[in-house]
Amino acid sequence: MAKKKVFVISHSHWDREWYMPFEKHHLRLVKLLDEVLDLIDTDPKFNSFQLDGQAIIIDDYLAIRPENEGRIKKAIAAGKLRVGPFYVLQDDFLISPEAHVKDFQIGRQTAEKYGPMMGIGYFPDTFGNMGQTPQMLHLADLDAVAFGRGVKPTGLNNQVSEGAFDSSFSEMTWSGPDKSAVLGILFANWYSNGNEIPVDRKEAKAYWTKKLADVEKYASTDNLLMMNGVDHQPVQKDVTKALEVAQELFPDYEFIHSNFDDYLAAVKADLPKNLSEVKGELTSQETDGWYTLTNTASSRIYLKQKNTQVQQELINEATQLAAIFLPADQYPQDQLTYAWKLLLQNDIHDSITGCSVDEVHREMMTRFEKVEAIAQSIRDDAEAAMAARIKTDDFAKDSYPFAIINASDVAKTGTVTAEVELDRALFSDGRPDAQFAKMQLGEQENRNFKIVDATGKQYEGRVTGFTTRFGADLPKDRFRVPYMALYAEVEVHVDALPAFSWQTLALAPVATPRMYADQDQTHLLTNNNVLENDWLKATISPVDGSLTIVDKPNQRTYTRQAVFEDVGDMGNEYIFKETADQRRIYSTDQAPEIHVVENSSQRAIVEVISTLQIPKAASAQLNYEQRAVIDITHRQATRSDETIALQLHTLITLEKGARQLDFKVSYDNQATNHRLRVLFPTQIKATTHQAESIFEVVDRPNLPSKEWENPTNPQRQQAFVNLHDDQGGVTVANYGLNEYEILPADGTIAVTMLRCIGELGDWGYFLTPEAQCQGAQTAHFALLFHGASEADRNETYHLARAWQTPILTKSLAHQTGDLAAAGQWLQIKSADQAFAVTGVERDAKAKLIVRGYNLSKASKSVQVAHNQAAAEVVNFLSEPTKVANDQDLRGAEIRSYRFDK
Ligand SMILES: [Zn+2]
Questions:
Q1: How does DSSP assign 154-196, residue by residue?
Q2: φ and ψ of 673, to 5 deg
Q3: Rg, the chain, Cα only
Q4: pLDDT per residue over 750-802, tens digit each?
Q5: Coil, helix or strand for 142?
Q6: Residue 158 pLDDT level (bands cut at 50, 70, 90)
Q7: How far apart are CA 185 and CA 179, in angstroms?
Q8: Which residues of 157-190 are buried (b: 16+ CB within 10 A; e: fewer)?
Q9: Do residues 547 and 540 lie in contact, with contact meaning Cβ atoms separated by under 8 Å?
Q10: CB neighbour list of residue 8: distance below 8 Å, 6 or more residues apart
Q11: For residue 166, how far is its CA from the centre of ligand 1 (angstroms)?
């Protein structure tokens, strides 16, 4: 009989920033790699060191040791350092699909600059695994994955695995919603199961007796994986010596200091037929539910909101507009890659998750601002290039043309706010204060406008005011040009502005004020508390502030909508744990104040002020429980007796012709250790619901598994969550509110608006006062209803996603141009509106790429067109891939098109 082989892989799981700020971890990383490089030079038996799947480690090391670039390169080329496949070890659920693609692309680029890339997807520490991982790995030319969480190993005593989320072996088949499958390797005894191997014979005997039994319990082949390292573990310098000792003590085994590529090859050659198959997302569904770490989705929600904004600016605005409107040879690939390298640093599994110390998250906010500055610069350049090309000579000379741009993948209806430049006075022509006074005179003139398009068609809208402001041009070829400019602030109503399109409008002077046609049309608001359009009718209760909403096309009524709930939280950045008193306060406990903000034929805005009298903090018991490092599940703290008023100011907006009811909540949070949610009890009876995940609309059960003990069942979402039955349903859109829960009793969709906690948690005592999120807070969400058809439901999904992408505006000169006054840069047709676009960019060869995914689990026809260019289907690496039928998407397929110009 052949000997069992023990593959020992040296590594260190490198949390780049976590319970210490980045630079403290960074300096330790330099020490670690110095020692690894020395060991490679001095111990010829040392096979290799695995750089934790994240190529950023190389960049971080060389930032302090640039003189060692040659040694690094030599070590990687020789296979002594194993690098890639990712740039960072990301969080799976809280970053955009495009961020994952960039992590694959930039990880490969960075690794391959030095040598071969490690050939396995690597998710040792992600807080659950996204369902599309198998397909995404195939699209990045990988066919196996190692991961640490999400699946319960049952071991060989239980030969048959029963569920979709357990496996008899540490090796399994993992298939995604599109049926793509990869070989999955679970760290069944964690990624530290071969850490600190003793050299002492007596200790080694005991160590290996236990460790070999542990690993053999789950291994499906005679190839046993031992991971020699753990979080921030220094390299074990005598590991090869320790393996010689092991070899002497256990001659029936072959001990090999190795690497993942060799281990994988050996496992693949020996795989048994009876591997378990796990399916879709792996989020520890079949556990007691306490340690899924899902509540990181509501830790420091300000990070998630900022990430939503910055991703949007980088992906939909900067990247897309540069790809479409800049000449291909001027596409700022290097600048965008630089921006992504910065943003990916925030996308790491201890960073965007909000589960580090305060210093880490402060640095993240600066990184977000840096990415935002890059995105805005690129967007401004692309917009200027576009603006210079739009033909405006059909407009009257005395009018002021401006473009409105819909960069989303669905037609938009609603009010667009624009600033249109009316006049400009240069500092070179007069003193700044004199120019300011001149522009202010313009403000005071009695100027009235109508809003028209190039055909003279009039749009509903109005000028809400004028403003004079300093500005400066920074020309490419000469010194800056400062000026004062006069702007009109404009609101214009657009009706189904097409996806991926622009429309040119102009302010045209008229003799008399032209406001909304209010006199002859119905207003959207009646009785100060009833908002109504063709889609819905929402009545705000003057008694408790909740809404009764009629979905008019489908004749369904939803009562007690948008109720706010506040509960105590004695948990930490990872885990929500309600205080032992279970004292819950609702916005319906007190009558609200209701104010009309706007009421016209185009839009109604009502402000509802709800007051919740909430406990100020947690009881003193919590302080003891934190200092004593008492596990979450054993805590007994309650909420304090002292209360304060939490006043929520909710702006509820309904637009003419728009499907969504929009909510924007602002408030000043002065309480600690609590969680605030908004509740939408739908009364829909269903066993599952849908939510947007990564490249996927995932179906999740409303009830947890039978072993679930956690009284809550939190889940993560991208842009929306939906509950429906066969008659229709409700979609809740959110802006950076990534945590929701379905409360099955009355079909409530609960979305977390804020979670305030004072400690990191996990393995020690780390205070995080800034995770209490004190001060000004906002939450933005919207409600949409749909009927029975999948097309109608998908329409709400598109609208929810696009709702994060504002319509852009840009003042234009009077000019000729090669772009018509209105146009569309992408035309997408898919059955049931199933194709959702996640990104438009140019690849390394400056070819246009359009990427998206099938919202449906069923096959759908699709056509994507751009300027009559020919397109082919490519993978994440822009390599042509075979698809069965390029006119049809597979269910849940992720697809990228590459155009030939
Ligand atoms: Zn980690």
A1: --TTS-S--STTEESSSEEEEE-TT--EEEEEE-TT-TTTT-S
A2: 50, 60
A3: 29
A4: 999 999 999 999 999 999 999 999 999 999 999 999 999 999 999 999 999 99
A5: coil
A6: low
A7: 18
A8: eeeebeebbbbbbbbbbbbbbbebbbbbbbbbbb
A9: yes
A10: 194, 197, 226, 228, 239, 243, 255, 256, 257, 258
A11: 23
Quote the ligand 1 centre to 125 CA distance (angstroms): 5
Which helix (H) or strand (E) element contains residue 210? helix 201-218
Give the catalytic positions in this structure: 125
Burial of 364 (0-12, 13-18, 19+ CB in 10 A): buried
What digits encode the pLDDT tens for the residues 416-450? 999 999 999 999 999 999 999 999 998 888 789 99
How many helices (H) and strands (E) the chain has is answered by: 15, 48
* β 144-147/121-123 pair status: parallel
Q: Taking the mean position of all CA atoms in its chain, how far away is CA 185?
A: 26
Please give the mean pLDDT across all residues of the chain. Answer: 96
Model pTM greater than 0.85?
yes
Whole-angstrom distance, CA of residue 823 vs CA of residue 504: 9
Q: How far is CA 138 from CA 81, 104, 180, 413, 875, in A?
A: 24, 11, 8, 38, 8
Rounded to the nearest angstrom, the distance between the alpha carbon of 276 and the centre of ligand 1 is 27
Distance 191 CA to ligand 1 centre (A): 11
Residues 541, 547: contact at Cβ < 8 Å?
yes
Q: Tell me how far apart the alpha carbons of residues 31 and 303 are, in angstroms, rounded to a whole number.
A: 31
Q: Residues 6 or more apart from 257 whose CB is under 8 A from it?
A: 8, 10, 45, 46, 47, 48, 239, 240, 243
pLDDT digit string, tens, across residues 491-522: 999 999 999 999 999 999 998 765 554 555 67
CA 146–ligand 1 middle distance (angstroms): 14
Other beta carbons within 10 Å of 373: 12
Tokens coding 2: 């052949």
- From 442, 449, 461, select the one nearest 398 (Cα to Cα): 449
- Judge whether 492 and 505 are in contact, CB under 8 Å: yes
Return the sign of the alpha-carbon dihedral for residues 193, 194, 197, 201: positive
Strand 661-669: give its sheet, edge to edge.
593-599, 603-615, 643-655, 661-669, 775-786, 728-734, 720-725, 688-693, 696-701
Q: How far apart are CA 171 and CA 218, in angstroms?
A: 8
